[in-house]
Specification:
It is a single chain. Helix content is 84%, strand content 0%. It is built from 6 helices and no strands. It is mainly α.
Length: 161
């Protein structure tokens, strides 16, 4: 059996797990996609995909870290969320993993709402903070999905041309 076949198979597996990681907060989605693409490029000795596309893919991976952090925080800070709301979002995201798939959407919202309610004791404000935080997470998901599509497109373009 050709060892490059195993490397390509592992690369595809990394990319697929990375795509799942866009949704699941416990997995580093885009870094896994990058690792899979790097492994695929390495498997053929960088004959198809060279240093320039890989550098661009690495930069897109770095951008994903900023998107991950900023999307949720900006959504929450726009409405003046407290630290307890941000911690609630984090803990709600983790708890949501255990109640998939609904928990992935409800967990961060409930966590932010409960954290803000704990801080202010105002249900209306807490709901507003919870929704804003949740919208920030959805925006982050959409941006990360766009980054993965761009990364796969760039890799395919470099491979073909």
């Amino acid at each position: 059996m050709d060892p490059s076949f195993i490397l390509y198979l592992l690369a595809v597996l990394l990319v697929l797990v990375g795509i799942a990681g866009i949704i699941l907060p416990a997995l580093p989605g885009i870094p896994l996609v990058f690792a899979g693409l790097l492994l695929a490029a390495w498997a053929d000795g960088f004959a198809h995909v060279g240093w320039l596309p890989l550098t661009l893919l690495g930069l897109l991976t770095l951008v994903s870290f900023a998107v991950d952090i900023l999307a949720t925080v900006v959504g929450a800070q726009r409405v003046g969320a407290s630290r307890k709301a941000l911690w609630g979002t984090f803990l709600g995201s983790i708890a949501g993993v255990f109640f998939m798939p609904i928990g992935l959407f409800v967990g961060p919202l409930a966590g932010a709402l409960l954290g803000e309610y704990w801080h202010t004791r105002e249900l209306g404000r807490s709901t507003k903070v919870g929704l804003a935080t949740w919208l920030g997470i959805l925006l982050g998901f959409a941006l990360k999905l766009a980054l993965v599509i761009a990364m796969l497109g760039l890799f395919a373009f470099a491979w073909i041309f």
